């Protein structure tokens, strides 16, 4: 049934009123070519603190971004009040393409990926040598996540005054991961901070580690003018208490780099990791996979890497390390 006449004029057409009183929606979105570039320093309950030039600005995500979120380390385009004055709020209208994305899941059965940081180029895995005891499986998982994201790993071993680092370093020697060993006295006099700072120079480094390993204490030594709360290890459970509740990016003195302090983790799920990408972190072994069967896991009877290594093309310890990392999803961190 025709609702209007054959040639309706404007008076014949019904217009549905806009109950919100705002402009009608459109698929055309502004380009915001004049938006300022900012760096996301921290995220807290929907409010993002961004560094724009030499000032910090509080912003929120624009509706036009939809479900796309911004995380610490993101480069973003910001419009609105960029003065950074108290009680002002700007708007993030664009998240620039990322150079790297470090992800984790709650466990290996959780399909939901959590982005830890964006645009980092180094992952510092902080581990205490005692109090709490080191967890090699958690280190392995962090290494897999770093290799998958294209980040260079760095081992930072704390509390060497309580235990020797030799055994732990020996188990990772074949991987060639750089490391720094620290103790409490050196953190106090500043010598440990200088050694760690040298390894971070010119880079954006994300710090991850189990609660209680001294990660935030180390960050406070690296950036003494931005001290964060620190906790202690429970004498009964041997576990640390979460004192860092949100990731925070901090500039190193002299604009020599960035550190991103992240909340302590008790697990590092790898449900999002494709094991086939881990081999790319082993350039000495990767040529040996040419003769592998299709979809080879590199940890099976017909894997060509066994013959490749037996012929002297690579160190057997490197193949062992690769397979240990590949199998880490089948093992829990505490095993």
How would you describe this protein?
The protein is of the alpha/beta class. Helices cover 18% and strands 22% of the residues. It contains 7 helices and 13 strands. A 6-stranded mixed sheet has the order 10-9-8-11-13-12. A hairpin with a 2-residue loop joins β2 and β3. The chain is globular, with a radius of gyration of 25 Å. The model is unreliable at 229-242 (pLDDT under 50).
Please summarize what this structure is.
The chain contains seven helices and 13 strands. It is of the alpha/beta class and 335 residues long.
Write the layout of secondary structure elements.
Blueprint: E1 36-44, E2 47-52, E3 55-61, E4 75-80, E5 90-95, E6 101-104, E7 114-118, E8 122-128, H1 136-149, E9 152-158, H2 166-171, E10 179-181, H3 184-189, H4 191-200, E11 204-209, H5 215-222, E12 248-251, E13 258-261, H6 305-310, H7 316-326
Parallel strand pairs: 3-5, 8-9, 8-11, 9-10, 11-13
Antiparallel strand pairs: 1-2, 1-4, 2-3, 4-5, 6-7, 12-13
What fraction of residues sit in β-strands? 15-25%
Task: Note poorly predicted spans.
Answer: 229-242
Helix/strand order: EEEEEEEEHEHEHHEHEEHH
The CA-CA distance between the termini, in Å, is 72 Å
Query: What is the gyration radius calculated from CA atoms?
Result: 25 Å
Question: What keywords describe this structure?
Answer:
single chain, 335 residues, alpha/beta, 6-stranded mixed sheet, 5-stranded mixed barrel, 18% helix, 22% strand
